[in-house]
């Protein structure tokens, strides 16, 4: 099985921390994972389609698109009163000094995402 933390590899130091954490979790679970590099602009859909996903960080979009979808064995649970339980939750983050104060204020605007195969 593979491990890949591409979604959160902001820089080499952060990538190293994610690898260390996943390696510790895998060791505790007595799993053997092969870390792979999968840098942008390689398409995320090809990563999500692999049959050997072991510990791969991805957003919720692949779960909506795939049939059958990947099996979730662990997921972070946010400490947020608006995101209770095992549900998908999205937060829009805007500049504090920007023109947006409500969700409706953002309608007609632009957002950014990491990849067409991701909602992140």
Strand elements, count: 3
Q: Unreliable segments (pLDDT under 50, ≥5 consecutive)?
A: none
- What's the end-to-end separation, in Å? 24 Å
**Helix coverage percent of residues?**
10-25%
Elements, N to C (H/E): EHEHEH
Percent strand: 5-15%
Strand order in the largest sheet = 2-1-3
Output the structural class: alpha/beta
Radius of gyration: 16 Å
The description of the largest β-sheet is:
3 strands, parallel
Which overall shape is indicated by the principal axes computed on the Cα atoms? Answer: globular
Helix count equals 3
Please state the oligomeric state of the protein chains shown: single chain
What average pLDDT do the residues reach? Answer: 80
Could you explain how this protein is built, in words?
With 120 residues, this protein is of the alpha/beta class. It has a domain at 2-77. The protein contains 3 helices and 3 strands, in the order βαβαβα. The chain has helices at 12-28, 44-48, 61-65, and strands spanning 2-4, 34-35, 53-56. Strands 2-1-3 form a 3-stranded parallel beta sheet, with no helix packed on it. α1 links the parallel β1 (2-4) and β2 (34-35). The protein starts with a strand and ends in a 55-residue tail after the last helix. The model has no long low-confidence stretch (mean pLDDT 80).
């Amino acid at each position: 099985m593979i491990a890949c933390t591409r979604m959160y590899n902001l820089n080499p130091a952060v990538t190293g921390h994610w690898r260390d954490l996943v390696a510790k979790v895998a060791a505790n679970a007595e799993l053997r994972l092969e870390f792979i590099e999968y840098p942008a602009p390689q398409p995320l859909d090809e990563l999500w389609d692999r049959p050997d996903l072991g510990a791969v960080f991805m957003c919720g979009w692949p779960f909506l698109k795939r049939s059958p979808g990947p099996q979730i064995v662990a997921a972070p649970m946010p400490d947020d009163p608006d995101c209770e339980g095992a549900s998908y939750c999205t937060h829009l983050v805007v500049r504090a000094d920007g023109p947006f104060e409500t969700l409706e204020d953002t309608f007609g605007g632009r957002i950014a995402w990491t990849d067409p195969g991701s909602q992140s």
